[in-house]
Design brief:
single chain, alpha+beta, 4-stranded antiparallel β-sheet, 1 helix, 7 strands, 39% strand, elongated
């Protein structure tokens, strides 16, 4: 089996990779080209993190263990479904209360 891993630098997803299920999250330092001084490469820290079924994409952000697109947290499909279920339960309770005020038995 395989899973996706997000390649993150400076909190921004740069790429999405398919990895083996056993691939672990890790942080490492890599050297990159330095346009100001080609003989002295720059070092940057890169994180490989598992988005755990979240539909993340390059350009999204990863901060404090949470994933964001623009200013909205990216949730897993299960988290989205749970949020929708709670919203529907609240809406249902509001409608039941309105029907009761009107004297209609649900």
């Amino acid at each position: 089996m395989a899973k996706t891993m997000a390649v993150i630098s400076d909190g921004v997803i740069e790429n999405i990779l398919w990895c083996d299920d056993t691939a672990a999250e890790r942080t490492f330092t890599e050297k990159v080209f330095n346009p100001q001084d080609p003989e002295r490469p720059l070092e940057r820290t890169v994180l490989w993190a598992d988005p755990q079924d979240r539909p993340v994409a390059p350009g999204d952000r990863y901060e404090d263990g949470k994933w964001y697109r623009e200013d909205t947290e990216i949730l897993t499909p299960l988290q989205e479904a749970r949020n929708q279920l709670e919203a529907l339960k609240a809406e249902n309770a509001d409608m039941a209360s309105a029907l009761e005020v009107m004297g209609v038995q649900p």
